[in-house]
Amino acid sequence: MRNTAPIDATEIEALETREWLESLDYVLQSGGPVRVSRLLRQLSDHARQRGVKLPFTANTPYVNTIPPAEQPPFPGSREIERRIKSLVRWNALAMVVKANKAEDGIGGHISTFASAATLYEVGFNHFFKGKGDALDGDIIYFQGHAAPGIYARAFLEGRLSPQKLENFRRELKTGGGLSSYPHPWLMPDFWEFPTVSMGLGPICAIYQARFMRYLEDRGLKKPSNSKVWAFIGDGETDEPESLGAITLASREKLDNLIFVINCNLQRLDGPVRGNGQIIQELESVFRGAGWNVLKVIWGSEWDALLDKDTDGLLVKRMGEVVDGEYQKYAVESGAYVRSHFWGADPRLQQMVAHLSDEQLKKLTLGGHDPVKVFAGYKAAVEHKGQPTVILARTIKGYGIGEAGEGKNITHQQKKLNEDELKAFRTRFGIPIGDDEVSKAPFYRPADASPEVTYLTERRKQLGGFVPSRTVQVEPLKTDSLPALFEEFHAGSEGRTASTTMAFVRMLAKLLRDPEIGHLVVPIVPDEARTFGMEALFRQVGIYSHVGQLYEPVDRDVLLYYKEAKEGQILEEGINEAGSISSFIAAGSAYATHGINTIPFFIYYSMFGMQRVGDLVWAAADTRTRGFLLGGTAGRTTLAGEGLQHQDGHSHLLALAVPNLISYDPTFAFEIAVIIEEGIRRMYRDGESIFYYITVMNETYEMLGMPEGVREGILKGMYRLRASSRKQKAKGRAQLLGSGAILNEVLKAQEILDQKYDVAADVWSVTSYTELYRDGHAAERWNRLHPGKPARVPYVTQCLGDSEGVIIAASDYVKAMPDSIDRWMPRRVTPLGTDGFGRSEGRAALRDFFEVDAKSIVLATLVELVDDGSLEASVAQKAIVDLGINPEKPNPAIS
């Protein structure tokens, strides 16, 4: 008899859902995935037109993106690769443990590489292309905290000796050691890029991938299938630099870029997202930004379980568990996992009833499964039209067991006791006896062993070892430079110009030079018109991979905004971090690509050292070459803009960067000498230095270059104008000036001569930084060579025989002239711009900060009173005559 009982709403809904799913399966079988996608899109549009508000989601279910049916076969020997990986794991761990036994507190990290070993080994064995002789391999940004694992593999490859590993984090030991993290400055033949200041690796990788396209589009490099790989921690993505530029990668369709995010769910102190799911969060961020997202979450053992999940209960359960709980599962027993994960539904419990607690505990995560990782990497490498991010689920400290696997303390774990070492040894099958294991000895099989033979052959087939940094570039010919810069030695002959205008003129000439013009890379963060660079739009164009798909609004203007695929200018928008990432890519291309590109990055000086100082430090570590130009520089020279824009301390910040040569020039000829010498030193002689030059927007007459001052310009100071007085004066003075304030010093020289009978010499100080370094270098040499003829600091050579008081005025903080006071024959009186800027005109600002001509005059007179050359009444009267308010607020604190 037919059952006529009413069907409840739940059953009706389940029936309707099943019918819809069956219909969808039919469409998939008959029309394929493309037809299904089109149908779902049409259904979505139809629902919206009928008033249905569909919630937005960029997420897919919490499962692997690549289903088992679409996985490619694994091409290598899984058993040999497992043994290689185990040896790498052991040696990485041994390196850190031994270092901390030898010197307590020396540090090091075990857990990051322990979680990422499979991610790296699959890459080393199957994907990472070495550069070989053609310099056409992959570019890899290794996660900084994983450095022990990278060293351990290089040890197996025979590239690093046991002694080097013994001296991990002890670089000053006899025979040398290994740096804590990737540092090209410290290991210039090994590391290519510094990455451990978290967040810098990702943004630099993005701009590196774009710079590869730039080189290819401009014909400087042949197109290739090389990839840029960036290995990143999930906690690292909280750094703004990590995700701040990801839309550039999708906008530029950088399918040569692959991010691998090691999602071990833990940062230094605890969970990355204890109450959420970091993988789902990152998926939505990257998919929303237009990336191809591949999730590698579950290992192969989960495939059969998911295949049985016909009702979606398991997938639903996977998606509702938060990361804090997943972390708990990693440290608890199989029984706990059975109870708390599978026990949420009897049907889930039944799904794993055939598995023991131990088997449940050993269900592998995707990031530890070579098959799943290989499938993800292969899909990423073959994907076209988008950058790819792989979100790989791992366990932090995987393999170190009770010593910290999956625990919050694991990031700080540096030591293992004997039992923990034995357990690790046994788990990974390392052939070291019980009597030796407590010493954590390094282990490398014989050269003819299957493991070493296999890994060596794999690297040979892939083009050589990585990481490896090899400089294979011909020195530039610089014969044309003197003639190119000669016009700037003559001065402006009564016309006025700014140093920014002078620089832009030099840049335009460099771009036209037949020898090096094509190698010049102008970089600007959306301020080209501010700096007067719009003429370059027509001359060389703004780089765009797709050219110009629109007619610019100013097309009828001579200097219209011209984008071109072969364009030379990198116009980065309002983005100093991205701009300097491009600067690093261009400035290190001599090593990365074997191309001597010469970057000139000009920007508001206040938004350089202060805003992206960490990236400047990374540029130094990378051995970047090129020129940073701090535009609109000087706290009183940039009129009207006020506190946030007026820079009076970038040179102080630059002083701390060891290989950054910084100058504050006043005249065009000084800039010409500095840039000519910089190109020669960096690109002909191959020095690992880069330059910081401040340029101003104040216009004044550019003086001609005096005879014999080239050396002084480069060393940091020279006498620009001696006193013209023939008869004896009441007082003598040496006036030092820099940048635009040098003109105030020249005015002060005239006032002192005409009104106060003081003869003053004027010195142009182009670089306090160079004078400071020279002075300390001389002192150090003298200290280490007692009894030998003493070296004399250059500033002492300049002023040692001079007469009179010494006054130093600049548009920067007083710490700059103070830094060289010890080598002066007499004390120096510094005048500078300590304090916050103001929205005012130049004259008012210089009066406020006490660096104008009258303030320089007063400082000179007061010093002459102190040394007995003048009566105090002279200085007192000058205060009145010059209109100085002695009770005005202190600019340094007001």
Number of helices: 35
Describe the sheet with the most strands. Answer: 6 strands, parallel
Structural class: alpha/beta
Across the major sheet, the strand order is 10-7-11-12-14-13
The gross shape turns out to be elongated
Amount of beta strand: 5-15%
Alpha carbon gyration radius = 33 Å
Total beta strands: 20
What would the average pLDDT be, to the nearest integer?
94
Low-pLDDT windows of residues: none
The level of helicity is 40-55%
Measured distance between first and last alpha carbons: 96 Å
Please, could you describe this protein's structure?
With 894 residues, the chain is of the alpha/beta class. Helix content is 41%, strand content 10%. It contains 35 helices and 20 strands. The strands form 5 sheets. Strands 10-7-11-12-14-13 form a 6-stranded parallel beta sheet, with helices on both faces. The protein is elongated, with a radius of gyration of 33 Å.
List keywords for this structure.
alpha/beta; 6-stranded parallel sheet; 5-stranded parallel sheet; elongated
Any chance you could write out the topology, listing elements then pairs?
Blueprint: H1 9-49, H2 78-102, H3 111-126, E1 139-141, H4 147-156, H5 162-166, H6 200-217, E2 228-233, H7 240-243, H8 246-251, E3 257-263, H9 278-288, E4 292-296, H10 301-307, H11 313-320, H12 323-331, H13 334-340, H14 346-351, H15 357-361, H16 370-382, E5 388-393, H17 418-427, H18 434-437, H19 450-461, H20 481-485, E6 496-497, H21 499-512, E7 520-524, H22 535-540, E8 542-543, E9 563-564, E10 570-571, H23 576-587, H24 589-592, E11 598-604, H25 613-621, E12 627-631, H26 650-654, E13 660-663, H27 668-684, E14 690-694, E15 700-701, H28 710-715, E16 717-721, E17 731-737, H29 741-756, E18 758-765, H30 768-784, H31 794-799, E19 805-809, H32 815-818, E20 828-831, H33 842-849, H34 853-866, H35 872-881
Parallel strand pairs: 1-2, 2-3, 3-5, 4-5, 7-10, 7-11, 8-9, 11-12, 12-14, 13-14, 17-18, 17-19, 19-20
Antiparallel strand pairs: 6-15, 16-18
Helix pairs in contact: 2-3, 2-4, 2-19, 3-16, 6-23, 23-25, 29-34, 34-35
